[in-house]
Design a protein that fits this description.
By secondary structure, the protein is of the alpha/beta class. Helix content is 39%, strand content 25%. The chain folds into 2 domains: 199 residues, FAD/NAD(P)-binding domain; 217 residues, Polyamine Oxidase, Chain A, domain 2, CATH 3.90.660.10. The strands form 5 sheets. It has a 7-stranded mixed sheet with strand order 8-7-16-17-18-15-19, with helices on both faces. β1, α1 and β2 form a beta-alpha-beta unit. Bound molecules: flavin-adenine dinucleotide. The site of flavin-adenine dinucleotide has 36 residues, from α1, β2, β5, β11 and β19.
């Protein structure tokens, strides 16, 4: 049987190969880099595991948890129970459980109107948590009601400078003035659902298992998806042997939307859909210190608007000496091109204003994500319909990625599973007819 060619060895690409293998279908993954994991990669250096993107998962995610079971990965570490946000120049706790039950301290910091808006927003998300995802019709209702304006136009200034900025920065690496409420509703719906953990030893252990038995060609950049007469015919590749074309009649793209845009020519409405998806760049800095940096019950800090540092957390609850600084948001974008050393210094300076660092650096790892996190698009449900309709015009092409079912590892796996189902659907229909 001809293998399915997959572009990209991130969670979406590895997941695609996994769901194909479950059906006995071979695949070849083309990966431009030298390791698996993409924006959820785990770089190991000696005893340290530097997770440079996605790492935390919810116990409420069906596909991710089923795979953990299948791979025998049963040791987890708890994620921090909440965040501290800089609000009115103070560190205010935003704990998931307390916030959902109405936290008086937070309410007084937000003011009565902001507190009421936040409470109503969260309770809607909580009530409808199981139906708020990019496959349910309910999200379309949210889009219709809210997506005519960005987040900052709907809520009070204090709310946008505090908790909703936290949602925006984590959800899209962007400011409330750059994102739309449907995306935030999606984040809020996961806020109180399930418990959040990380894989002990790092997310790399999950990727290793997912990559086992798969054919992965590292250092292989796909330059173009070739088509002939409305059908995929091959891939133009560039690797150490130079540029060449390999024949392929079934291809699943598992690269971000802005990369796919350059690889294939879709009908105009599909190009418009791809262009409307926003990705905001960010840098992720892991620093291991020789002594605890977080203390006094603080495990994670979200900084104020205008700070170059978006947020940062202790890598794990029990490792307050390992800090993950995320430089995201508008002010961060102005400095992302500076050297690694400068970024680390800026991150530490911002942090020290809230909590002085009295420790020495032992290890530093800086990763830049030029595409960052997908910030989706207003009225995304329509965008997704247009995009899938455009992809459907090319027989043998399917798409998976963080821009389809939510930009979490679960969202990526869901998109991978659905891409495989769509790719195989016509063949099944033909064989039934035959
Ligand atoms: C800082 C940060 C924190 C996050 N935290 C979480 C979290 O805690 N939990 C969670 O669930 N999610 C989190 N996410 C989101 C999650 O990491 C991403 O949604 C997910 O990793 C995206 O995976 P992907 O496979 O779709 O894309 P990618 O990971 O981008 O994979 C695409 C792959 O394709 C390769 N590629 C690109 N172009 C080509 C080409 N032309 N030819 C061949 N290969 C190519 C790339 O090198 C890459 O390996 C976070 C993301 C970031 C950035």
């Amino acid at each position: 049987m001809d293998p399915v060619h997959i572009i990209g060895a991130g969670v979406s690409g590895l997941g695609t190969a996994h769901f194909l293998a479950k059906r006995g279908i071979p695949s070849i993954i083309h990966e431009v880099g030298e390791h698996v994991g993409g924006r959820a990669a785990c770089i190991r250096q000696g005893e340290h595991a530097f997770e440079i993107g996605g790492k935390n998962f919810s116990s409420a995610w069906p596909r991710f948890n089923a795979m953990l079971d299948e791979f025998g990965l049963t040791e987890f570490e708890d994620q921090h129970p909440g965040f501290h946000i800089v609000l009115n120049d103070q560190l205010v706790a935003l704990e998931k459980s307390k916030t959902l039950n109405g936290d008086l301290r937070l309410a007084s910091a937000l003011g009565p109107r902001g507190a009421l808006q936040f409470r109503n927003f969260l309770s809607y998300a909580k009530r409808n948590a199981d139906r708020l995802n990019y496959s349910s019709g309910l999200i379309e209702q949210v889009e219709k009601q809210w997506d005519h304006a960005t987040i900052d136009k709907h809520f009070t200034k204090k709310l946008c400078a505090g908790p909703l900025r936290l949602f925006s920065i984590i959800m899209g690496g962007a400011e409330p003035s750059e994102l739309y409420p449907s995306l935030m509703m999606l984040f809020a719906s996961g806020f109180g659902k399930g418990s959040h953990h990380a894989v002990a030893g790092g997310i790399g252990r999950f990727h290793d298992r997912l990559a086992e038995g798969k054919t992965i060609r590292f250092g292989s950049r796909v330059k173009q998806i070739m088509t002939y007469d409305g059908h995929v015919s091959g891939l133009m590749l560039e690797d150490e042997d130079g540029a060449r074309m390999v024949p392929a009649n079934r291809v699943i793209s598992a690269v971000p939307a802005h990369v796919l845009r350059q690889l294939v020519t879709l009908p105009a409405y599909g190009r418009v859909a791809l262009d409307s998806l926003r990705y905001f760049p960010l840098a992720l800095i892991n620093v291991v210190y020789d002594a605890p940096v977080f203390r006094d019950g603080v495990h994670s800090i979200m900084f104020e608007p205008g700070a170059p540092l978006g947020h940062c957390s202790a890598n794990r609850l029990h490792s307050p000496h390992h800090v993950r600084f995320t430089m995201s948001g508008k002010a961060a974008r102005d400095i992302l091109d500076r050297s690694d050393a400068e970024l680390v210094q800026i991150a530490e300076d911002s942090f020290s204003k809230r909590m002085p660092i009295d420790a020495k650096r032992l290890k530093v790892h800086v990763a830049r994500h030029t595409g960052g996190i997908c910030g989706y698009a207003p009225h995304f449900t329509q965008v997704k319909r247009d995009l899938l309709r455009a992809v459907e015009t090319l027989q043998g092409l399917e798409v998976a990625g963080d821009y389809l079912e939510g930009h979490t590892m679960e969202g990526c796996l869901t998109s991978a599973d659905l891409a495989v189902q769509r790719l195989l659907a016509p063949a099944t229909r033909t064989s039934v007819a035959a």
